[in-house]
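Record format v2
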Amino acid sequence: MTVTDPKTPRVASSSVEPMFVERWSSKAFADKALSDDQIASLFEAAHWAPSGSNRQPWLFVYATDGPDREKFNSLLNEGNARYAPNAAMLVLVFARIVDDEGKKIRTAHFDTGAAWMSLALQANRIGLNTRAMGGIDLDAAYDVAGVPRDKFETICAIAVGYRGADDDIHERMVKQNFANDRKDVSEIAFKGSYSG
Ligand SMILES: Cc1cc2nc3c(=O)[nH]c(=O)nc-3n(C[C@H](O)[C@H](O)[C@H](O)COP(=O)(O)O)c2cc1C
């Protein structure tokens, strides 16, 4: 399958739902707010993700505007601060790494990744763009979001909004702002035993 959008020159080698190929993380965000329904649908999708023993260790804290948003923006590293403040919403993602009995939740990161992907695919379905960002002040995120350090680990932030045009980003970013490719499937999936 080939996607015809010039920004998404991706080709799938096997039959797959187009949504997997069409989702990509643009840095360009349009100056347009999200509705409460759109925001609700993103977290709705995220919270149906599977998790070990159904512990649902993911946690999302978000900001759209006002003083909260200023605080969220201040967490971005230099590179991400060049585009992510334009996104309608920033989401801080945390994984709960210990349960109420103090026992480690071994699959917390894996589970939280599943929830992020659900959110990203739902966003794409409703015409929105997401970009996850590890480049944030991971420690300061606890205080900004009011999340306890002893139970959670900061994973990343996500910029969410309407996809923008090339004019919405710095011209130096435009060249790299397209859907990138992947390794061949034969490099990541093996029958029987790994032979990399
Ligand atoms: C956990 C995580 C952290 C990331 N951190 C950053 C980041 O700090 N800055 C950035 O511009 N992109 C970041 N990205 C975006 C990746 O570079 C991007 O997802 C990857 O190149 C694949 O491209 P695609 O999402 O368009 O398919 C991050 C993605 C993930 C999943």
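The chain is about 30% helix and 15% strand.
The helical segments are 18-22, 36-47, 66-73, 78-81, 108-125, 140-145, 171-174.
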